[in-house]
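Risk register update: the risk of archive-format incompatibility is retired. Evidence:
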Amino acid sequence: MNRRGFVTGLGAVLAAPPAVSAQQGGKVWRIGFIGNSNPKTWAPSVEAFLQGLHDLGWNEGQNLRIEYRWAEGNVDRFPTFAAELVRLNVDVIVAAGIPALRAIQQATSTIPIVSAVLLVDPVSLGLVANLARPGGNVTGLASQYEEIVTKQVQFLREAVPKLSRLVLLRHSSMDTVTDRAALATADKLGVKAQIFEVSEVVEFEGAFRRARDDRAEAVLVLPSPSFNAHRRALVGLAAKYRLPALYEFKEYVQDGGLISYGPNIPDMYRRAASYVDRIFKGAKPGDLPIERPTKFELVINLKTAKALGLTIPPSLLLRADQVIE
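Archived output:
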């Protein structure tokens, strides 16, 4: 898929002279890019990635070609995409999330894989040997979700002061490491949490209805490429069943969700470009340390809070990076 169909206005930015010249003897390098969602949803991250490449001297149509594959939230597509990119013999594959990375790792042990976004410890998943020296063909950016989910539950309890019953919404394709961290954090904070697992979009409403019937007071939507691809459906159901919900990315809140807390995803894609650059210049992925995100954002939607009858404490609003009114 040609990026010109979904990234608008980027041509003017990339037309400027690159900050660093990529001297590669005329070779056109190829990147396989697997997107969890669709071009429109993922446009800010793609723009950040392309800008990061441009700043390092790599420009599509000149010394670079990108093969895009879009899962549209369907994790079953990842093995097919991985196999296609391996057959094309791309020079590096960029992807995000556990399902995509596992599919690519199973498809190739030689083509370098760059993780743009991974919200869980890759060592505990067996994706890499250790953070400082990953070994194998996987490197990139990853975050230990245990730390993120601790703050997410804390923020939810502040937003819903009497929070005692919490539902953790989990997609069946995701690893249980996240579950354990979320449950342990809730328990420490005196909140009774239970996991509702879904596999398909048609199951979303049943999970929210059950949460309401079980008298849950809030929902924490755990990370999932499928959830992000269908975030508007989740936001709509949280409003329909009047359940305060916290999500991983700010885009959920911009679409009407209550609260989000997590890393800045476009920034992680921008930084992923530096891994691609180093690999093109001869670095082995197994020698490149896994980096962690450095920009985290707490975003709150006051319109949604008002609709839910919630008053967000001033102490929480002061810590927000963005407040939507």
